Amino acid sequence: MKINYEFGSDNHSGVHPDIMKAIESVNVGYSVAYGDDEYTTSAVKKFKEHFGKDIDVYFVGNGTAANILGLKSVTNSFNSIFCAETAHMNVHECCGPEKFTGCKLTVIPTLDGKLTVDLIKPYLIGFGDPHMAQPKVISITQATECGTVYLKEEIKDISDFAHRNKMLLHMDGARLCNAAVGLNVDLAAITRDAGVDVLSFGGTKNGMMFGDAVIFFDKDLSKNFEFIRKQGMHLTSKMRYISAQFEALLSNDLWLKNAKHANEMAQILFNEVINISGINITQKVQVNAVFASLPKEIIKKIQKKYGFHVFNEQNSEVRWMCSFNTSKKDVMDFVEAIKEAFIK
């Protein structure tokens, strides 16, 4: 039996047709390598339209590189980085942040993936003590790995707290577009305007083939990034193929349309499963993810038809993701498979 992966991850989706056309459009003739081309220059201008004229932006191959290299550029090996225990950099980056930054990751338990000042405070110790890691960066994820979203005011509280303590705020924005749509704000409102210092901006989960961007809202923080990116093996020679994708994504509201559709499909799924006896929705449905707990035997039955991740084995919590190309029919077919699993 064929296993369907529509709801396993937004990374399982294909490439948006407009993105594919953009790649094809630059696949002609010759172009200067390593980002010194007209396509990269144009894409950078597009980023400045959304995030502000005085930013520095650099393209890398994937989100893990964006997180690690962005953090490495603003830390020393004796520093500590604070993040939620569910953070991608803690769970799914194979100790890469520790290896390449040399920093200590201080992980903080949360109920919904969101950090708060009150949660962070007890861990913020050791300033000036040569025997202890020196606190340097707070890293948050927008939207979180639990599918929840930080309000602008919540981000501002954390950034103000970080800056008062001479620290920086980093944001993993792999699903920033979905969060912005969920909050009905623009991209700058929950990054630049909320006090974020360094942003990893993802496109792969929102219709791109590959590529992420590292954005510095203070150019003093990026002065060595060109060298760090090269040393970190992410100075792509044929940069135009990443740049063209970002140009398309950030034009004609494509980023917004893709994220809006994915979020809407998740809401439909939520509305369909919330009243199924035996399913407990575990997190607010704010973006393109539905988190639910259900009996293990039911999970196994559904997974015979649909592939998806068990997020927490202990409480049988699963994650169902929607993407820009999830259709309503996909959702309804999935709901039917869920219902059948409870009956048979």
Describe this structure as you would to a colleague.
With 344 residues, the protein is an alpha/beta fold. The protein has 13 helices and eleven strands. Strands 1-7-6-5-4-2-3 form a seven-stranded mixed β-sheet. Helix 7 links the parallel strand 4 and strand 5. It is globular, with a radius of gyration of 20 Å.
Summed up:
By secondary structure, this protein is α/β, with parallel strands linked by helices. It has helices at 17-25, 38-51, 63-72, 88-91, 96-101, 117-120, 152-164, 176-183, 225-231, 240-249, 254-273, 296-302, 328-343; strands at residues 56-60, 79-84, 104-108, 134-141, 168-173, 198-202, 212-216, 280-281, 289-293, 309-312, 317-321. It has 2 domains: 17-249, Type I PLP-dependent aspartate aminotransferase-like (Major domain) (Aspartate Aminotransferase, domain 2), CATH 3.40.640.10; 254-343, Aspartate Aminotransferase, domain 1, CATH 3.90.1150.10.
How is this fold's topology laid out?
Layout: H1 17-25, H2 38-51, E1 56-60, H3 63-72, E2 79-84, H4 88-91, H5 96-101, E3 104-108, H6 117-120, E4 134-141, H7 152-164, E5 168-173, H8 176-183, E6 198-202, E7 212-216, H9 225-231, H10 240-249, H11 254-273, E8 280-281, E9 289-293, H12 296-302, E10 309-312, E11 317-321, H13 328-343
Parallel strand pairs: 2-3, 2-4, 4-5, 5-6
Antiparallel strand pairs: 1-7, 6-7, 8-9, 9-11, 10-11
Helix pairs in contact: 1-10, 2-10, 8-11, 11-13, 12-13
